[in-house]
Fold this sequence. Notes:
heterodimer; A: Pyruvate-ferredoxin Oxidoreductase, domain 3; 8 helices; 6 strands
Amino acid sequence: MRTSKCDIVIVGVGGQGVILISEIIGRAALRAGIPVRAAETHGMAQRGGSVINHTRLGCVYGPMVPEGGADILLALEPAEVLRYGRYLSRGGVALVNTKPVLPTTVTTGQFRYPDIEEILAPLRGVARVIAMNATEIAERAGNPQTTNIVMLGAMSRFMPIEEALILDALRDSVPGKYIDVNMRAFELGKAEVSG
Amino acid sequence: MREYLLGNVAIARGVLEAGAGLAAGYPGTPSSEIIDTLSGIASRYDIHVEWSVNEKAALEVAIGGSWAGTRSVATMKHVGLNVAADPFMTLAYLGVDAGLVIVSADDPYCHSSQNEQDTRRYAQFASVPCLDPADPQEARDMTIYAFDLSERFSVPVLLRPTTRVSHARSDVETGEIPEGRRRGRGFRKDPARRVSLPVNARVLHRALIDKQRDIERELESAPWNRLMLRGDVGVIASGIAGLYAEEALANLGADLSLLRIGTYPAPSRMIEEIVKNTSKVMVVEELEPVVEEMVEIVARRCNPELEILGKGSGDIPRAGELDLITVRNAIARMLGMSVTVPEDIPSTEIVPPRPPSLCPGCGHRAAYYAMRKAFGKDAIYTNDIGCYTIGISMGTVDTCLCMGASITIGSGIRFGGDERPICCCIGDSTFLHAGMTGLLNAAYNKSRMTVAILDNSTTAMTGHQPHPGTGVTATGEDTVRISMEGIAKALGAGHVECVDPYNLEESVDAFTRARDFPGLSVVISRAPCRILLRRKGEGFRRYRVTDECVGCRQCVEFNCPAIEFDERASINQLCTGCGVCAQICPKGAIEVVK
Lengths: 195, 594
Ligand code: SF4
Ligand code: SF4
């Protein structure tokens, strides 16, 4: 039996705004009257480490999405999508920002950063993969800090929550002077995904 | 009202709803957001909120609060309870006046901790009740209940959320926050119950033991213990494991007897009930086999034939955290059903590791670089708990045990007969928490070594809480700002100096002088945390690499995440302009962006 309506895993690098995406979805779910459970990474990993956030819509159990269970895997950084690829469910969707953030293990030359295609190819066998340079899109929207909101806009196409409620939650979650740029980022992200 | 709350915010909410008038804690992941939340709204209510200097201080302040008739809470992470264990163990004898709740947040899997000890063991050890919430809703509800329970039995009550509760977020039903007076009537003299002289302690210990049965009976009927008998095979699960078990049973479509436990001492009658009515049970709990041991004891008496699966049988791991798949597969195996093995995604091995790293421009990195230049690679670097432990890749972290241990272990290594140079590294907040005693001990016992206080003027790792060196309190009021130099001198260090780590040459010289000092020396390396500065609105310069770069990689060795290398060095947008790489480059190829 299915025990969650929509399981979402959001991954990225500490400081990229992973938690904000989940907060917005959670607030939107609350408005929609859907129970929601989420698990966040705080503490040590936030210092530039790899972070993962679980959000379960329409779920009343534990907050973590099981491996192989994510309907949506959203990655703010390309290497991270493959690191957590095992969370994807067969037939799920992977939404990927293609702009890398190089870990120090790469900048110091100990490891090689793989090509985007090398990263995405293994996922294509499992799920629908939608890749975009969300950082560049966010710059177009007016602020590269809204990369996470670009990705949220793209993800909104796949979430069982009305878009208006997500936008309300977005407005509630960012400071007033940044609402406009965030709205633009959301729209541009959404436009990247054909219905 | 329904709100979307982080587990720790739900606990803070419970504290407010319960009418508590005092909250004290020391930051520690995953517990910090409880005081962070309360300190932000303390001015609206009649409540004293403080970041204490350490957990022992926090608990003792909360005890005083309770004895003054004010409902009080002390918050900490699981290992913080070790620091507070001294007052904690005897407090159970003396008891409380107004309700006293101790939140000790466990961290199975050591997400952000040095061990994964189980607070439920402390509860057993001290004969103190313990509540084990499964989610943010239970965390809020149990917090309120805990104050009542504490008052009814005059015992402190432990609340033990785990990382997946404290840092979970969910929709939570909240209630009214009472307005008005929260402080109590004041301290009432009662030596027989407030003075732990042996003559009193003997009596109080017996009274504590006598209370246990009544406490257990009371807890038995608490709403977080739920028994459903549905046949011969059963599952017994505690705290968040209860949610994993319920979801697993729903996934598997298995209709088993289920006992969910949320309170300790565990509900022995319910355990007896399920033990008598089953022939096989699986006990599912995170970390220690607390419930499992109890089930074994009860089964010996009521159903010796019972087959008990769990940690003892190897079906449930004793280390690390549980999750749905682990629990589902354990139950499936017990039922002879097929297990789920998540598919492997090919070629994940091409993903480069991404360990946490010191932020670009972090003063700790600069201090480590200078220290290492002065002390060399053969020196011994004892380290401590904080962001700076992340600098392990720089070769200046040889030990890390617990808060404050850098200095005392350094002394021990010296007296143990090692004659190499020793440099102990400790952060400002950690130094004030547990390092001062070690420094005094080192001075008194004539330890010859260097202590580096890496002063970033905050408690960074846990979310930038203030401490006595910052001159502000938890609630943002101005207060005394203690001087690290003053303390170091007062505690007996023979040579004390303060340096700016971003001035590499001066910093190397300072560490060299400290190394050569024939006694106990202290170097205070002071550079406020970059994240803190950014939050305060400080703009940073940026650096860039010019065509002069010859690709020698010396700047790359500095390990700053903003420096990239591909035949030649380049600096990305993460740069916060500390300027150290420019001082390292032998070709003068790094300059400020004008
Ligand atoms: S100045 Fe150099 S070392 Fe400092 S943050 Fe920028 S790139 Fe890193
Ligand atoms: S230290 Fe200077 S010359 Fe050497 S790689 Fe770095 S920028 Fe280039």
